[in-house]
Specification:
Oligomer: heterodimer
Helix content of chain A: 25-40%
Structural class of chain A: alpha/beta
CATH class of the largest domain in chain A: Alpha Beta
CATH class of the largest domain in chain B: Mainly Beta
Largest sheet of chain B: 7 strands, mixed
Number of helices of chain A: 17
Structural class of chain B: mainly beta
Helix content of chain B: under 10%
Strand content of chain A: 15-25%
CATH architecture of the largest domain in chain B: Beta Barrel
Strand order of the largest sheet of chain B: 10-15-16-13-12-11-14
Number of helices of chain B: 4
Chain lengths: 641, 405
Amino acid sequence: MRYASPLKMDRQLVLGSALAFFAACTVERAAPDLRGQDVRLTILHTADIHSRLVPYRFAPGSIDQALGLDPTRCHSATYCPGFDMTNPSRCDCDFGGIARIATIIKRERSHAARSLHLDSGDAFEGAPIFNVFAGEAEFRTLSALGLDAAALGNHEFDKGATNLELQMRKWAAYPILAANYNFYDSKDPSAPKLGTLVQPFVIFNVDGVKVGVIGMGNISSLESILYGGNTLGVQPMDTRQTIQYHVNVLRGQVDVVIVLSHLGLDEDEGVAASMILPDQNQEAALDGVDVILGGHLHIVLNPPKIIERVDATGKVTGRTILAHSGAFAKYVGRLDLVVHMTEDPQKTRSYVKTFDYQVFPVDGTVPPDADVENILEPYVIAANRNLDLTREFGEIPGPSKVVRNDPSGGDSQLGNLVTASMRFRQGVEADFAVTNSLGIRADFEVGPLNTEQMYNVFPFDNTIATVFLSGDETQEMFNFVARKTADRGCRTQAQVSGVWFDLVCSDPQKGPHAENIFIGDHCGHCRPPTDPGYDPNGTCRCAPLNPFGSYKVAVNDYIANGGSGFIVLQRNTTKFNTGISLRDAMIDYIDTSIPPCQAAACQALCPNSGVDSACYRACESKACIDAAAEPHDGRINIVFR
Amino acid sequence: MRGAAVLLVALLACVEQKGPVRSGAQSIHLNITAPQSLGTRDQPLQSRNVTFDVDLIGPDGKVVPVDRDLELYTWFLGTLGRNLGPAPSDLSRCRGVLPAPIHVTQGSAKNISVTLPLAYGPVNLWLEDCHDPGASWAVGASDPLWFPYPTIQNVQQPLDLATFDYRIFADSPLENKQVQIDTSPGGQMVVTSVFAQFYTVTDTGLSSFSSLDVYSFSKPRVQVGDVIVGQSLTGAISEFVGMTELNFPLQRIDVAHSPAPLPPPVQMTIADFNYGADAAKAARLESLEASVVELRDGCVCPADSSYDQFQEWKLAFKTTTGNYNCGRNYSMTMSTAGVVVGWDPPQAGRHVQVARGVLVNLAGLASKTSGNPFSFFVLHPRNSSTLPAGTPPDLVDAGDTCTPM
């Protein structure tokens, strides 16, 4: 075999490199002349993916159906193998999935002259793949589908700032933005160095259209960052000032300014508008933001809001387009902007003349993208192996699913199940239990209940903590729950077991508060006869709250540490973290305390099967979470006056 | 090794520098030639006839001499309408399915005349090159043509009352639009009720279809009697079980004129609700959606399954024979739970002198497949503490008893 001399090889390589360089550079063209023209800029938008990288079972409600998430679309042999028309609710129609999103992104990019894909944050937390891989799979797949930039969501911190830094360094191939976070410049070598990774903004030159994207992290749900010296190393900055500062920096350099936000809807509206109400700030409106792409609230704004800015005299001075594109990988938004490019940047600026917005549902009719699916596959296999995700231990026979939010606004069946599992857990055995409603992230859908769904419903790795509260402290805690509930459309922000109370959402004299608090179960007949929740049948066996009494309370460790504003728990010095996983406690409670399905339910679930069939035997062996299992019973009774 | 590094650098550099493939049109120039004035917010257009010229512009800023079919839409209130008509569907827009209305020859088309559909606020004509194979996806939009903003009546009133489907009561012509609502001439938009998750507003200058339900999800940031500034009330219109709603609202309060006197409640009898197959009668009920109405002389019925399920109870009114009848045609469904103190659970036989409240209709199809319509009305009395001082309560007890049947 002959070898080329090293020198000769180098020469060949250099020559080849030069040829390649110039060949490649011959395709480079001068920047297009866009002066005075209308140009399409397409923004593909995702938000709050929450680790739903793998399609999941879910029954869309009326709002999702109106947005195109139609379960009947997958009721065919093509999309739903083994679909049984005699029992359509049993079809495992699944939704979401990052490989499907990749297909939509690629398709829509091919239908656009100039495009960007932006994500509004919270890619982490919400499915077991995050519990196992801590964000690696999310960053890798989002990078693979060519995401251009993302806002930093609050759940990106769920496994700590150090984990976020590690995952970003290793796997995130796109800029992550948060202009309103000032990262501590710590000299401590062990402290996270997020400040070196997270950017305030990024500028894209999309074939002649310059786009400035300012990222805004969440503040309202990261209450810990409001305290100095927090472990996340983040100091939040004023929203309006931060945006105005960066708009001032960018506006003269770019054609379009986009705020990529994880602030939340109210905050997004506040950014765009002024003088919404007389009691709100009367500052001059923010000028120069063309588009806000938001997240955090898990809603779809279709059509987007058009927020006009008015001055003190009521004159309209500009407008901002505000779009939210849903959550849990259920939708991809497409915002087409018609950008009128300025003739002379020295005299005038480019502006968004008009727009169009569409949302594409991510359902079984969208084929998965093979490249992204290949990246995902080893994570799925490993997560299944580690967590036994397909193990079924319960059955929701229907016809109704087990809901986390009761239509009454009071206690819910799922909330009652969760808090019962906390309270009665061996080693806990508390007088009553309290958890925050938002810690329960989804309903139990009709059908088999397996480990994977438990991770979707309880994604947080929270544990049970116990705390001793006096009666006065208990009253203070439920007063806080009432105030928080009143602000959120009077839908209870806590779920309880072993305690009953009236949650007064409005009271002209006392404001929102809790009253008629009784410790025990089935306390409806303890209420005053004039009370809406009074149960005339039975004898009161519950004790009214004793202000001087001491109660052992089971709570989750998140609120025990002051999360969601439970300051009364945060300052308590009797806290004890049992280390018992909330999710494990729930699985054990269902396994051991809820009786299996009866014959009638199993016959309905397995309509074409005999009693010896695998379906029937599996049904009989699982806990049956029907309407009788810890139903809504009015323990949190909503009252207005 | 060194050579490999050079190669890598060279390739990287060229990948960085390489621009996207660009050919054909990159922009569409749409120039309106008539009318000469496009109107303003304060002086909107009346005529809907528009004439315009079109040029396809290439990367060099010059007209591209190609023949193309272009798709034409109108944009108003936040969404596109297909071919000057209803909103495009995912399956028809830019799929080459429907004929494209605009043909350009050698890159240009002149003196194209169209008549715009009913449209409100600023309207853009929107042209795009997405119809033919090898589309450039270039787009162009006209400067805005200004038309009057919609009033509550424009949101609520079906376009054609003659074909109004009274079985399902879901017929807002602006459904799925992001509306910006103006006050009618001489009227005021007054907040008439505030509940935990929604409020209602009535335009006092309108004689019918004058009220709207504004669903805020969280506690509304308005008070009963507040006057809302014209054109400041914005949100998306949707039909929720037959009820027209404005969702995700924003509004500004006219502090100088608030609180304003509340419009008087609409006096009704239970017979007004028995529309049967009478479309005109049903249309009147539709026109009163979200209004405050008043009924007199009722009798509380015993709680039934709807109380167990929805915490709603029935108020019976007299038949021609003088009996209080709890049947469907003589009773009104009442919703007081969590709002009005002292009326839950219902005390059968309680005689009600006056029952006022916001009128909500719930209607639709029982399921997509059955096609069976359902429809009934619910009266939502307001919490007294939300009403201005001196306003009588919505539910007034007559002080004696009655016998519901």
